Description:
The longest helix has 38 residues, at 13-50. The chain has helices spanning 2-9, 13-50, 67-77, 88-105, 123-131, 134-144, 148-179, 184-189, 204-220, 232-235, 245-270, 280-283, 294-321, 329-357, 371-379, 391-400. By secondary structure, it is mainly α. It has one domain.
Amino acid sequence: MVDFLTSTIGLSGWLAWTLAATVSAVLILNVIAGGALVFIWAERKVSARIQDRLGPTRTGGRFGWLQSLADGIKLLAKEDLMPEGADGMLFRLAPYVSFCASFCAFIALPFAFDVVGQRLNVAVFFVVAVLGLEVFGVILAGYASASKWSLFGAMREAAQVVSYEVPLGMCVVVPVMLAGSMDMVTIAEKQAGWFWNWYVFHDPFTFVIFWVYVTCAVASVNRAPFDLAEAESELVAGFHTEYSGLRWSYFFMAEYGSMFLVSAMAAVLFLGGWNGPIPVATLLGFSEGTGDTAPYLIRLLGLANLVGKASLGVIIMMWIRWTLPRLRIDQVMTTCLKYCTPIAAVMFAGAMLWQIGLPGGLIPGAGRPGGEIREGWLEGPGGRAAAPPAADESRDVARVAP
């Protein structure tokens, strides 16, 4: 976009970068806000079906499509209250800290090939690190509320998030090792082709570590059965008990935004990213630079693929919430320290040894990634294909690429 604004329209460099950054920020903000509206409605429907109820049926017709919008208008109109004795500045600041942590992590998340706010060569660890900052908003909310119940919820969240970052980090290292890059665009492109190229099917160790990642991701975004920071049955509503109106809604936008983010990361790291289980674009002939519009069609199809996978991950989290009972704090820590961390460490070592012993997989050549070819013709001048590397050379490049 910056190249288009500078070369075609003739804007100066700083103005082009500012305009491109503004457009990216607005689009990401709409993804979080719009996604929260949809997922809140979906959670009510999912929970209703599991409990043999109907859920919203009136606002917006028989399916209750506008229920989330009606709730948003209600929250905007509600009075903003603050407990006596609360720390005013920190109390008001906490919801925005939580939301900004979730929002900023989206900057490095690719939605399709090069459809990303800012492509980083360390995108994986940037997302994990920034997403972990959301806990500071929770701690501020609990501390500033002048309520022991809110403080209990905040301390639980701090212990939980800090603990689960260890196995979560081990899980994301495995796709990084297999792809030879921390760039999420490169990791997803290395899984292009049929579904057996996805890293979740790379070997038995990555299959197991994918489920460890799912467990840690659910815990890191404070969802049941790990939602001890809220624990409505014990702490009324946990860290945000004293919040109302718009500030309360920011906590929930941050939660649903983080749910979508970790689900999208799972798709990029283990489930092929924007590459579908069947390479539809290639089968339809949208390869080898078939025209100037081909790259845009590929990106649009990839965007639909990734959003679909991430949305399915959010639905599964809802399913888990309304199926499993909440764990005690000692059970939550036991799950992390006695199960997730050792399993992640063993699976990481196993995946490393598998990569050394069988770098080409069980069937040599069957899992050859097509990312190098796709990147070549998508980045080529005018959308035309660059000459693909030889088979042996491409495998060597995929193995040692930084």
